[in-house]
Amino acid sequence: MPVITFANTKGGAGKTTAVLLLSTELARQGNRVTILDADPQRWISRWHETGDATANITVVPYVTLATIQTVIAQHRPRTDYFILDLPGASSPLLATAIGMSDHVLIPIQGCAMDAKGGAQVLELLKYLEDKANIRIPHSVVLSRVNSMVTTRALQAVKSLLAARSVRVLDTPIIERAAYRDLFDYGCSLYEMDATRVSNLDRAKENAEAFANEVLGYVPNRAATRPSLSQRDVLRSAA
Ligand SMILES: Nc1ncnc2c1ncn2[C@@H]1O[C@H](COP(=O)(O)OP(=O)(O)O)[C@@H](O)[C@H]1O
Ligand SMILES: [Mg+2]
Question: InterPro entries, from UniProt (predicted)?
Fold first, then answer.
């Protein structure tokens, strides 16, 4: 089962928000998602405790370097995607988590000059490749992008990163009130009331485009998982 890790050693980069958007979208598409919450602040766990249980989503709080492998082994039979939310600061888990990942996503605030936290993760990925010949697929996702920002400004950031051979997702995560409200309501975008949340449709479109682009880079194992009827056939054949 693919492990997708969100990493940026800076708090506020948009990791937890992106984790939530990807997880809820994958769950909506019928995948069983296990979120590994490695942030001691437990934002995702708190989100999960706030609302009604969200179908297809399991959240494991307090994941650490000592427990991550056991947790993954335990949940593997009931999981199509593991999504790991790392803490804001540099943590002992970072290198190990990156090494275990099928894809690392690095949210970097679209128009902020301070991309240091993202650069640290990119340096670590490069170090693993150069020194240990371990190549972990990874992409930068521009986060908290103002909806008024021109494509040209975004293109400039992309070209800058492309010059360093870093892939940037075509879909930026836009700054949306709906994405902040998710944490208060403890639900997904699809359970929100469009009369109370502004631009909800735009927010849904953006989250869906983001998740679909990520899926393009990560194999969708759910598609190869036998369907219920196929499983019956397999069971009876056994
Ligand atoms: N795309 C976005 N739209 C609106 N608010 C956002 C967005 N991304 C992040 N935020 C807000 O910014 C703050 C930090 O984001 P968060 O996802 O927690 O970052 P991190 O996990 O990297 O520390 C939170 O208050 C969050 O609600
Ligand atoms: Mg976070």
Answer: DNA_Partitioning_ATPase, P-loop_NTPase, VirC1
10 alpha carbon, closest ligand:
1
Residue located nearest, by CA, to atom 3 of ligand 1: 175
For residue range 116-173, what is the model confidence (pLDDT) as tens digits? 788 889 999 999 999 989 999 999 999 999 888 777 777 777 887 888 789 999 999 9
Give me the percent of the chain exceeding a pLDDT of 70. 90
Kindly give the distance from the C-alpha atom of residue 17 to the centroid of ligand 1, in angstroms, as a whole number. Answer: 5
- Count the domains in the chain: 1
- Inter-CA distances, 174 with 143, 154, 216, Å: 6, 12, 20
6 in contact with ligand 1, CB cutoff 6 A: no
Estimate the share of the chain in helix, then strand, then coil, as percent rounded to the nearest 5: 50, 15, 40
Ligand 1 in reach of 118 Cβ (< 6 A) = no
Residue 59: CATH number of its domain: 3.40.50.300
* Residue 147 φ then ψ, to 5°: -65, -15
